[in-house]
């Protein structure tokens, strides 16, 4: 009886978490219902070793709707453009997009991340993109840590989105879709950089995200996007000669490095069942939405509306799946399960940098009854729905905290 009560209480807690979705009524997250925004500048979210071997503090500016009283709010973290060489969190476009989205009710943040690389070659620009990804993951963890402790920013830990422009788009795409060491080219030397999660700060919290905003960015391969990955929103010009809309070379003075842009990433997302939106800017060049010309301001409006309309429906759904807030057990193993809710199958995975240990698993229904037993053999494994009815289930293993599953 005691065991049943514990399982039931855990299930009820998870049900409460599932129902605690974001309230989008009253025009919130669609209309600029807040006339003013409060900016907290220079918030240090971590530190990391830069390419010179020195420890670099990492800072962000956080934008909040002035006068907002909601207790848990979605967060959008942005990274600026600049080819991993230049740019900052105070770039004009970052200030504008963070301000506009905060007026809708979001908490937004513009981060600085580690820049520069030398020699100027393919290997080192790839390393720079990994460092940027690691720093952005630390920013995600920062808000989850704050949500679990001081709650200074009243962030909802299951509704954290990452986005970026150009180089920042590379960072955001890798945070959302690069989840296995084997996906990183060997020449990068991922282990020496600290693995996928990195060591930029706030360990012990998940860097999983609700969605990815890719603004004129690209990544190494379409295969990064897999079934169950977070939704993708891309905005990209078809005449972009810096970061290809389809597939091409980046770094004009570097040895050839080929990447794939939005024109291939979003069709890949569609093919594997990942919800996505692609706003194609016909005939537009690189990051046209950052220009202050009349056309540039029009592109900025289009980009803003695309982001707004993409994100708002996601807020009315259960958020990012975290295993007990991605808690770790004494052996340090964690787990993620997605999507939630699922209509067919669910992808089980462990975060990058975590040592996977095969183990026996049990799935319990809402009454505490074991409805399935199976062995989790691989770090990224598909759990077939088969005959399972709609509802909430609790997945538990020998070395894992409970994980909530939801079939619709």
UniProtKB/TrEMBL annotation:
<dbReference type="GO" id="GO:0016787">
    <property type="term" value="F:hydrolase activity"/>
</dbReference>
<dbReference type="InterPro" id="IPR049492">
    <property type="entry name" value="BD-FAE-like_dom"/>
</dbReference>
<dbReference type="InterPro" id="IPR050300">
    <property type="entry name" value="GDXG_lipolytic_enzyme"/>
</dbReference>
<keyword id="KW-0732">Signal</keyword>
<dbReference type="InterPro" id="IPR029058">
    <property type="entry name" value="AB_hydrolase_fold"/>
</dbReference>
<protein>
    <submittedName>
        <fullName>Acetyl esterase/lipase</fullName>
    </submittedName>
</protein>
<feature type="domain" description="BD-FAE-like">
    <location>
        <begin position="60"/>
        <end position="199"/>
    </location>
</feature>
<dbReference type="Pfam" id="PF20434">
    <property type="entry name" value="BD-FAE"/>
</dbReference>
<feature type="signal peptide">
    <location>
        <begin position="1"/>
        <end position="20"/>
    </location>
</feature>
<keyword id="KW-0378">Hydrolase</keyword>
